[in-house]
Amino acid sequence: MFADRAKILIVSGKGGDGHVSFRREKYVAAGGPDGGDGGNGGSIVFEVDEGLNTLAPFRHKYKFKAGDGQEGGKKRCHGKDGQDIILKVPEGTVIMDAASGKVIADMSGDNRRQVILKGGRGGKGNMNFATATMQVPKFAQPGQPAREIEVRLELKLIADVGLVGFPSVGKSTFLSRVSNAQPKIAAYHFTTLVPNLGVVDVEGCNGFVIADIPGLIEGASEGAGLGDEFLRHIERCRMLIHEVDAAGSEGRDPIDDINKINNELSRYSERLANLPQVIAANKTDLIFTEDGEEDPVEKIRKEFEPKGYKVFPISAATGKGLKELLYYVQNRLDEIPKEEQFFVPEFDPEVMLVEENLPYTVEIDPDDPHTFIVEGPKIDKMLGYTNLDSEKGFQFFQKFLKDGGILNDLEEAGIKDGDTVRMYGLHFEYYK
Description:
Layout: E1 5-11, E2 44-48, E3 63-65, E4 85-89, E5 93-97, E6 103-107, E7 113-117, E8 148-155, E9 161-164, H1 171-178, E10 196-200, E11 208-212, H2 227-230, E12 239-245, H3 254-268, H4 270-274, E13 277-282, H5 296-304, E14 310-313, H6 322-335, H7 349-352, E15 361-364, E16 371-375, H8 377-384, H9 391-403, H10 406-412, E17 420-423, E18 426-429
Parallel strand pairs: 1-3, 2-4, 9-11, 9-12, 12-13, 13-14, 16-17
Antiparallel strand pairs: 1-8, 2-7, 5-6, 5-8, 10-11, 15-16, 17-18
């Protein structure tokens, strides 16, 4: 089954904690600190795989987690880094933040490999905190926590030309005639249930790639029919071939059909609405006009050529008119700048998920106006790795409060010398 969308949870590895230890050797009365650093956590990496053309590998697995970094050891031993997870995707995959819909990365063009979620940095062992005035540090830095984010993957095919039109106008027959693609062809609506790519080789020219998507109907831009599911696959195209049943073999008016499809393209994307477009008036082999009756193709020409749409009468069934159409399309593509339609990143997980952004609150105890309560993940994590029984450890914690802006927030809340600060199980008196 063709899969062009998926939603997954990616989790980076936690950084290993720094170690607290001291040299203990015979004849060495007071060995210094020798706790090693923790290893870095593994990262989540996305990589383009030329052999893939769908997102099927992500349909049956939701969570992908990188390895955690190993804790540092004695004798300055560095913890082992966590293993990266490499997720392979087809070219054209756009990675977005599931919550906001903002683009994180577009895996196309030169962007073949990108680290999307970096692993947590390993914590420093206590050997890093020894100074002339603090020779016996009894604390170490913990590793940065794992980070996680739910992302949405969308495959947007890369083609030069998009083939659009109502169901059963002959798009699949057209594609099978002009390219190497072999789409399913039958006499009923929505024969095409998945997008098809075909390479068109034009004699004496460069050739181009064409994308055929399931037939559109009115309301496609809002999800009616199959259009909303697949319009994304022509977002990167430089030109559109708009195929229409010129014979009106199913009782529809071809002029009305063209207007309806163009309206859906406009409602879905301003860029699609403004793409160069050529009209392929198909099924001319089924047109039989009586004396005095106007040729349906001429009606289409009179309506749309003054608006800048070139009209080509063709028969996908017999091959009539296809060569002229393809040469025209190739010549137009040569005139259109070949700028890759790249989706610009709007969301950086490294900025949005940094540990420093963890929240905390400063509140006055309702039962005691001289007690200030500070709580939140940022405080909880710091308390978890600081030895407050040590004078130097407490000084280290005070520096964290100052650098993190917490002392400033306490002062803005009205704290005075001698007032109490309560942080979970910790109580201390405040003095500026």
